[in-house]
Specification:
Blueprint: E1 7-8, H1 10-19, E2 24-29, H2 39-45, E3 51-58, H3 61-65, H4 69-96, E4 101-104, H5 124-130, E5 135-136, E6 142-143, E7 151-158, E8 161-162, H6 181-185, H7 199-206, H8 211-223, H9 227-233, H10 236-248, H11 256-259, H12 265-273, H13 275-287, E9 292-295, H14 300-308, E10 313-316, H15 326-336, E11 347-354, E12 359-366, E13 369-374, E14 382-387, H16 388-395, H17 401-406, E15 410-413, H18 416-424
Parallel strand pairs: 1-8, 9-10, 11-14
Antiparallel strand pairs: 2-3, 3-7, 4-7, 5-6, 11-12, 12-13, 14-15
Helix pairs in contact: 12-13
Length: 428
């Protein structure tokens, strides 16, 4: 496979990956500008990194479209195990050729010590785009030119350069058909026609049995005084579902945006031959499912489900996202921001954190959008000076705001109504 001591043949490398089970392969160099925001993380994971080999594994579409959730979850969990095995086989063969490398298999496990921040070291979707394996669709999934949204992405990081690298497909060749079917079937309103995406709406519902949702379940379990109180908080069905995820592989609550997508060579043909039939057989069953939607009270998803999803039952939950630093609090604000509660708000907030961290930041909310920048910019409508540890305790309701103000651990200057309005924008 090696052309010389430093460079390996890219064609043979791709053939090796395909032989072991990858359905498509793209190769990118570590110096690619599009990887600049994650390069340090990649080098931390594998300091010898010179090349990233991105691969996709095809998923069976009908296993994702079925109304039987456990079939869908079995398909995803099977593919996860498969790509781990495929990656190990490829790395084993490469090792015999003197090529060192590690695998990034996507999804779980991740670096839990980084929670609630970025827990992964290779961002696979941007890598797949840069590798020429697809473009981002409205549904925020990578759409492969042939397989559409029905792919599982994984990657290798190796210590050798290759003879030829890949590049993104032309943006005009984006497989996304702009059909908006993903918008139609999304139970939380997380996907919109304007290309905006509500991370927290999707995360709270679809990941109910993972990450923050699991933390919230543990909170309900630990705070219940007896089994009767626990059953008021958590239904028997939810308990069994959580047990099933723990025992056989974590499941998700939705993935409708993957299931309904007609992108990709084969699905596009079927869709365009009879759009009406495609809608009635693929989209309508997803749209009409009567099931629970897990939302945060007062959130955009709460408003969306109550106003447009009358067939679905709301289950109010917490998503378990609790910042453990002032820097993490500020980083999370754009992700947790809710547009609907901010519809009448226009204000600038200056934050000054002291104690464990010394940070200044400006948060501006205007026109149902949010901007967070370092330092104090412009004139503040509200100024908050807070001891970091006290502020973090307040966020998780372990500290009274009134007591914090009386003890001067937190100082707020400005109209209290604007502070309350700020809080409503982040009901999580």
């Amino acid at each position: 496979m090696k052309q010389d001591n430093a460079i390996i043949d890219s064609v043979q490398l791709k053939e090796l990956c395909m032989k072991h089970g990858a359905d498509d392969v793209g190769i990118v160099d570590i110096g690619r500008p599009a990887l600049s925001d994650q390069r340090n993380d990649i080098l931390y994971a594998f300091p010898q990194a010179k090349t990233l080999v991105c691969m996709v594994r095809r998923i069976n579409p009908e296993s994702i479209r079925t109304p039987v959730s456990y079939i869908k979850d079995t398909e995803f969990n099977y593919q996860r195990r498969e790509i781990i095995a495929i990656s190990r086989q490829i790395l084993s063969d490469l090792d015999l050729e003197g090529v060192k490398g590690v695998a990034e298999c996507g999804n779980f496990p991740m670096d839990a010590s980084k929670w609630p921040g970025k827990m992964w070291y290779v961002s696979l979707k941007p890598l797949a785009i840069e590798s020429g394996l697809g473009q981002m669709g409205i549904n925020r999934n990578i759409l492969h030119p042939v397989f559409g949204s029905f792919v599982y992405i994984f990657a290798l990081i190796i210590d050798k350069e290759v003879t030829q690298y890949d590049h993104p497909i032309d943006v005009h060749d984006n497989p996304c058909l702009k059909c908006n079917l993903c918008v139609t079937v999304c139970p939380t309103g997380a996907i919109s026609q304007t290309d905006e995406f509500s991370f927290v709406s999707c995360f709270t519902h679809n990941y109910r049995e993972k990450l923050g949702g699991f933390s919230d379940w543990i909170k309900n379990l630990s705070e219940s005084r007896n089994s009767k109180e626990y059953r008021k908080r958590v239904s028997d069905q939810e308990t069994i579902s959580m047990w099933q995820s723990l025992s056989f592989g974590a499941g998700t609550k939705c993935d409708f945006c993957v299931a309904v997508c007609p992108a990709g060579l084969k699905q596009e043909i079927i869709f365009k031959e009879n759009r009406k039939d495609y809608f009635s057989t693929v989209a309508k069953p997803l749209q009409d499912r009567k099931e629970k939607v897990f939302v945060i009270a007062g959130s955009d998803a709460d408003y969306y489900v109550r106003s447009k999803q009358s067939k679905r039952h709301i289950q109010y939950v917490s998503n378990g996202i609790r910042p453990n630093s002032a820097a993490g609090f500020l980083w999370a604000l754009p992700l947790l921001f809710q547009k609907y509660p901010a519809k009448d708000l226009s204000a600038t907030y200056h934050f000054t954190f002291t104690g464990d961290e010394n940070i200044k930041a400006t948060v501006s909310i205007n026109g149902q959008s949010i901007k967070v920048v370092d330092g104090h910019e412009g004139k503040a409508d509200v100024s908050i000076i807070a001891d970091t540890a006290t502020w973090l305790k307040f966020l998780v309701k372990e500290q009274s705001m009134l007591l914090a103000i009386l003890t001067r651990k937190i100082t707020i200057k400005g109209p209290i109504k604007l502070m309350k309005a700020f809080s409503r924008c982040f009901p999580a």
